[in-house]
Amino acid sequence: MAILNFARRAAPQPVDAGLEAFMQGYSIEVMPRTAEKVEDFRALLPEGTRVYIAHIDGTPIGDMVATARRLAADGFEVMPHFPARIIRDRATLADWIARYQGEAGVTSGLILAGGVAEPHGDFDSSMQLLETGLFDRAGFTRLHVAGHPEGNRDIDPSGGDAVVMEALCWKQAFADRTDARMALATQFAFDAKPIIAWADRLAEAGIALPIHVGVAGPAKLQTLIKFAIACGVGPSLKVLQKRAMDVSKLVLLYEPTEVLTDLARHKAAHPDSLIAQAHVFPLGGIGASAKWVTETAGSAGKPANT
Fold first, then answer.
1. CATH number of the domain within which 243 lies
2. Assigned domain for 236 exists
């Protein structure tokens, strides 16, 4: 009984004004199979929320386009993933772009390498996709690319970040010579410090792309640790490992309140920071994440149909 009482969520606390301001315009991510379980996105998300659609290897493009069409019809800004390593060739990329645009009116995309080790065809990196010029010719106006505040051993096996930084400089140059509105959507992290340090380092290197910081929505600790290890989350994983050592916290859902509050305070104190807004990975379910934003960040989470 004591454990059950300890696990019960405390009474709602007053909304932190800084956190509410930082969470305005937050984005979130879904997959076709999880979207099918949501009866009404407008009951969960604010009007016009940017919704990324994750393209997992093996997902039919028809399912992706159908999800995009549904979200667009509900008034959300749709941003499907374009993972280079699962796109076989230029013709496939052109077909995907045409279908998203023709059937769902999509003009935004997250361009990334993808989570598979070996390319399925001609493309290995997001830069190769951008170099095709197909997004520009199709009228895509917003192109986001991946950011890795804690490094990425898939790109830099040695553990450094030389290749990552070189790629970011290329993407900044691409943004400078095109009309695309670009931003960095980052991997999720659990500590604000490495994110802030990374943002400062990018600015010093002449990179000016806004950073949309990835955070994990409410989820069980075991779920988060599994995803964090699989996705290569770096030093901030220690936050979860420390939490796991406290038996009393194992029954509680992790919530991103602390990391987001720290980021909000930093942004308020440093308005010129590249850190621009939050992107939520709903690892514990989109309903739980949307509810958390509504309860914790006030008007930033007000659903469209309320």
1. 3.20.20.220
2. yes
Could you tell me if residue 304 is inside a domain? Answer: no
Q: Which domain holds residue 230?
A: 16-299
pLDDT in tens, 126-181: 999 999 999 999 999 999 999 988 766 566 556 567 888 899 999 999 999 998 99
Q: Are 86 and 116 in contact (CB under 8 A)?
A: yes
What is the mean pLDDT of the segment spanning 180-206? Answer: 93
Contact 217, 256 (CB under 8 A): yes
**How many structural domains does the chain have?**
1
Sign of the torsion angle spanned by Cα atoms 257, 258, 263, 266: positive
> What pLDDT does residue 8 have?
43
Burial annotation 40-54 (CB, 10 A radius, 16+ → b, else e): ebbebbbeebbbbbb
Which residues are CB-contacts of 255 (< 8 A; sequence separation ≥ 6)?
Answer: 218, 292, 296
